Amino acid sequence: MATNQTNRLSSGGVIDRSTPLNFRFDGKSFSGFQGDTLASALVANGVKLVGRSFKYHRPRGILTAGSEEPNALVELRTGARREANTKATTAELYDGLEAASQNRWPSLRHDFMSVNQLFAPIFVAGFYYKTFMWPAKFWEMIYEPAIRRAAGLGRAAVAPDPDHYDKAWAHCDVVIAGSGPAGLAAALAAGRSGARVILCEEDFVPGGCLLSDDGTIDGLPAAEWLARTLAELSSMPDVRIMTRTTLFGVYDGGTYGAIERVNDHLPTPPEHQVRQRLWRIVAKRCVVAAGAIERPIVFAGNDTPGVMMASAMRTYVSRYAATPAKRIALFTNNEDGWRTVETALAAGLQIAAVIDARPDVSPAHRSLASKNGFAVLHGSVSGVDGGKDGVRKISVSLTGGARAEVEADGLAVSGGWNPAVGLTSYHRGRPKWRDEISAFVPDGAPPGMVAAGAANGDFGLGACLSQGFAAGAAAARDAGRNGNAGTAPVADDETFSLTPLWHVAGKGKAFVDQQHDVTASDIELAQREGFESVEHLKRYTTLGMATDQGKTSNVGGLAIMAAVTGKSIPETGTTIYRPPYVPVAIGAFAGHHRDETFHATRLTPSHHWAAEQGAIFVDTGLWKRAQWFPRAGEKDWLESVTREVKAVRGGVGFCDVSTLGKIDVHGPDAGAFLDRVYINTFSNLAVGKARYGLMLREDGLVYDDGTTSRLAEDHYFLTTTTAKAGLVMQHLEFCRQVLFPELDVQLTSVSDQWAQFSIAGPKTRDLLKEIVDPVEDLSNEGFPFMGAREVALRGGITARLFRISFSGEMAFEISVPARYGEAMARNLMQAGKQFGVTPYGTEALGVMRIEKGHVAGPELSGTTTATDLGLGKMMSTKKDFIGRVMAGREALVAPDRQVVVGIKPVDKARRLRSGAHIIPKGQTPGPDNDQGYVTSVCFSPTLDQWIGLGLVERGRERIGEIVHAHDPLRGEDYDVELCNPVFYDPDGGRQRG
Amino acid sequence: MRITCPFCGERELGEFTYLGDAKPQRPVADAGEEAVYDYVYLRDNVAGVMAENWYHGGGCRAWLKVTRNTLTHEISSVEPAAGAGAAKVGA
Ligand SMILES: [Zn+2]
User: Fold this and answer.
1) Using an 8 Å Cβ cutoff, are A431 and A425 in contact?
2) Are residues A74 and A88 in contact, defined by beta-carbon separation less than 8 angstroms?
3) Across the interface, do A251 and B1 touch by the CB < 8 Å criterion?
4) Interface contacts A/B by beta carbons within 8 Å
5) d(C-alpha A462, C-alpha A474), whole Å
6) What is the 3-state secondary structure (H, E, C) of A896-920?
7) Where among A689, A724, A749 does a domain terminate?
8) Do residue B82 and residue A251 have CB atoms under 8 angstroms apart?
9) What number is the average pLDDT over the span A693-703?
10) Are residues A116 and A19 in the same domain?
């Protein structure tokens, strides 16, 4: 059964005591309440030790109460949903939550690797670079495995993430980061002005510091004002408050990134819901009201469990009614830290002492101390006595040199506040130093963005409200919303007084970056070794490079570097700020783009029919294409493909070729346009005829090929390869709009509008007669080779019919409106039964094109010229065309270029493999005598052996030569013969017949 | 980044494809190899404002001349290519 919440106050807090929640931490059962975070529930249960540190495996507790937490990282959930390095301080408690501490073995309390502390000297700054340099082979064998075991954070889940992630767009006038007093005031002003507002709050409850700190706004207690304000905002239809949502980045053009943790507060997302949603928010204006982060003071033992930021301690006591300690000492250098004393006293806790680094303490605080019987010590904390069970005793160096000791079980620390300058600095902005608060504040911001309140370095409650309100009203106005914003909420500003203090000298490790175990002496070492620039300091010590990105450590590290170099902090400068502000799961960036929905899937018009036929599909770009149609009893793909090829060559078959790109080219200048984009001439093509065309890139290399037909004087129908369909359209539009705007021509992509089938084989005409209206003349005279025209089909549909052949057989391609594609496939099957019609897939298509010596993707590789492909004669000399001039360059017309040639193994039984290199016979293979390679291969049922095409140096002059095929990847070496690439029906009689 | 297409309005970067510098003009047919070489290969590496060719493939398929500051990504103008839209130049 769950243990008692020993450290829970009997009343108070923004928690729902009527909803207890059970959870497990490191296998032990606990209970908490609705409204808790995992951290506050652990505090309420008296758990102080929550993890072991990265390098030294030192015991660590909870330092903060927000997303800046460096220490309290856990593995949340189990199995496939296990999430490493989750901040306990932001993990919302739910019933059944399971979490485990990280980086400890065998258990958190008895961690074997804590011996690392004894070897601490080797883990100093730069230790990776220095210690493990020699001998080199030790790195892989010993050092790296040992370091990986010893140093590290949580373990990622091993199984695939079972949850869904979503991506969404939102548009608004004003987006606001943070719902503290400044953010709420900004939302009020912008919302009342009539602006469309999105208010992002990373917490699960809006309110920011108003949830923890008391105060009076417009004469009301802060909590009441908060409730009233939230009610007013929710009554505004155009104001959207998004809790559990962190605005993590700003991008060009007023686009903001936000991560919404939609269902991280549940064990598993409800059915049909996502775990997280990545938002891209387009906003005309942005108000950054992200607040400020309280900064630690670096002293020996400052990482002992029980040492906590003063504001965090206040949050645990007042928001969660959970007490991190019974007897608390405060170490502060500023006025704000004292608020924790007031909160603790009000909750009935004991104050052991206040160690104040400032020269003076106000009379009011003095009388508070004497009334409550605790000492005010002027000085600083120089050491902490304690360990995994928490703080026991605190050593104090008093101003003047004397020492004192304070017994306490908790130490609250306040070193002042750093505005959250991340968002305002993400466009390479460098924040500027403000002396009055000893902190960096935004110095400008990306276009459209402004910081307000604590994020702008103005910490008073009154200032936050008035600045936020003014920023919200101005943002709304800038966005064109001019409604009456009313009056700003009013509150007093707290007094602010701070004496800068960054580091207290003392014995023992004093941590700057607790998550990466970077100590003050690491920074001093970096300086001694010459790594003074902040960018070098960061990389040499790894300061600020952990999952918290140094939210509690960067400025402190700079300050220590400034001190040891004798420079000021602003002179020392900051590193570049980069998004995301909090870690964002890769799954959220991927969204639904994973597994079978990684990209869109395009189905051919006859896909469902092909699936019924049992087709095996292959991914071709976005398309699924039928690769072959296996029949019962066939033992492998080769048997099926061989059958399909033989059926086509001996009878008739058909194949869906709808994936080809199809473009209608209209206009009086259509022919002139095609003349400029193809190497051959199309303006002289007769109406009713098709012609094979080849396009070059402007650099003279082959771009794409396809058949283009002239359907009317001013109408051509152009086809592209499947792979380049979109790119050729883009290229042709560029030619039309940018290069040749004087031509009167229009392009229309009709790839998706037409279903196209290739029907091939000697019985093609017999089959077509069953499909096409009998009035159409399909005879060799009425429809000769390379004819192209519209025909009527039986039943009345008009089709486009082209007498073109990729297979080398008597063949047609027929286009029907895409919605008839599936019916056409069924019709061809039905009508073709009497002729033994056989559907064939892309494999048989490929076999027949290789047998016929047609080039395709492997030969159109972006490195070949028209002449390389054996198509040089197509290049017109009578006109200009894209690529003409560059195609004439010396290297592109050199006689020793690798050109397309046929290849067949000397041993007819041997399998040929594409990728094999061609080497002159009798020579040892090497880069100097590499003469090309095999590009395409197939088993030719017609020749009953493996054949292929290749690109081989001077290949066409070497027909009949025996050369050597060298295939180091597969460890194969064999002799092949260079031959005519047209293996089948070289004079073309079959396709013209 | 967002680009305001003169035909479609303000749209997100993902709808567009970048080609590059819009300044080089395709040489006339008899300009010679040097001129074409220059057109195909030689580009200025502008740190600042430059005119670029962008294609609105996810929208109207217009080619656009986008004037953009490469240092800030600020877009100062977007014009349709001479032959974009329905009418031919000079018609
Ligand atoms: Zn457009």
Assistant:
1) yes
2) yes
3) yes
4) 81
5) 18
6) CCEEEEEEEECCCCCCCCCCCEEEE
7) A749
8) no
9) 98
10) yes
How many A from CA of B53 to the centre of ligand 1?
13
CA distance A518 to A774: 87
**Degrees to nearest 5, angle at CA A601 with A600 and A603:** 150
Residues A58 and A47 occupy one common structural domain: yes
Partner residue facing A738 (CB), from B31, B36, B83: B83
Locate the chain B residue with the closest alpha carbon to A698.
B40
Q: Are A362 and A84 in contact (CB under 8 A)?
A: no
Q: Which residues are A614's β-sheet partners?
A: none
Query: What is the helix (H) or strand (E) element at residue A351, kind and residue range?
Result: strand A350-356
Mean pLDDT in residue range A777-786: 96
Domain count, chain A: 7
pLDDT of residue A1: 42
Alpha carbon of B6 to ligand 1 centroid (Å): 7
d(CA A771, CA A780): 17
The answer on A402 and A381 residing in a single domain is yes
Interface contact B83-A743, CB threshold 8 A:
yes
Q: What range does the domain containing A804 cover? A: 605-658+754-839
Q: A889 in a domain, yes or no?
A: no
Residues A255 and A402 in one domain: no
Rounded to whole angstroms, the Cα distance separating A952 from B18 reads 36
Tell me the CA–centroid distance for residue A355 and ligand 1, in Å. 65
Question: Residues A882, A884, A887, CA angle at the centre, nearest 5°?
Answer: 120
Identify the pLDDT of residue A680. Answer: 98
Assess if residue A577 is contained within a domain.
no
Q: DSSP assignment, residue A298? A: B
Q: Mapping DSSP to helix (H, G, I), strand (E, B) and coil, where does residue A839 land?
A: strand
Mean pLDDT calculated for residue range A159-168: 95
Q: Residue A53 has what pLDDT?
A: 87
Structural domain includes residue A485: no
A415 versus A131: the higher-pLDDT residue is A415
Q: What is the pLDDT of residues A108-159, one digit of tens each?
A: 777 776 766 666 665 666 665 565 555 556 656 666 566 555 556 788 899 9
Residues A856 and A964 in one domain: yes
Per-residue pLDDT tens for A590-618? 999 999 999 999 999 999 999 999 999 99
Q: If DSSP codes are grouped into helix, strand and coil, which group holds residue B37?
A: helix
Task: Take residue A310 and report the two structure tokens written for it.
Answer: 């003063």
CATH code at position B23: 3.30.2270.10
Task: Say how many domains are in chain B.
Answer: 1
**CATH of residue A923:** 2.40.30.110
Do A276 and A135 share a structural domain? Answer: no
* Residue B76 forms contact with A (CB below 8 Å): no
What gap in Å lies between CA A3 and CA A31, rounded to an integer? 7
Radius of gyration of chain B (CA): 14
Residues A653 and A700 in one domain: no
Q: pLDDT per residue over A921-949, tens digit each?
A: 999 999 999 999 999 999 999 999 999 99
Contacts of A745 in chain B (CB under 8 A): 88
ipTM of the complex: 0.97
Instruction: Note whether residue A581 is domain-resident.
Output: no
Backbone angles phi, psi at A564, to 5 degrees: -75, -20
Is A781's Cβ below 8 Å from some Cβ in B?
no
Residues A950/A903, Cβ–Cβ less than 8 Å = yes
Question: CA torsion A214→A219→A220→A221, rounded to 10°?
Answer: 20
Q: Say whether B40 and A886 touch across the interface (CB within 8 A).
A: yes
Of A447, A669, A886, the CB nearest to B36: A886
**Residues A656 and A711: beta-carbon distance below 8 Å:** no
Q: Chain B residues with CB inside 8 Å of A738's CB?
A: 53, 63, 81-83
- The verdict on a CB contact (< 8 Å) between B62 and A737 is yes
- Residues in chain B with CB shorter than 8 Å from the CB of A734 are 19, 53, 55, 63
A307 in the same domain as A284 = no
Helix H or strand E segment including A387:
strand A375-387
Q: Which residues does residue A249 pair with via DSSP β-bridges, in sequence order?
A: A257
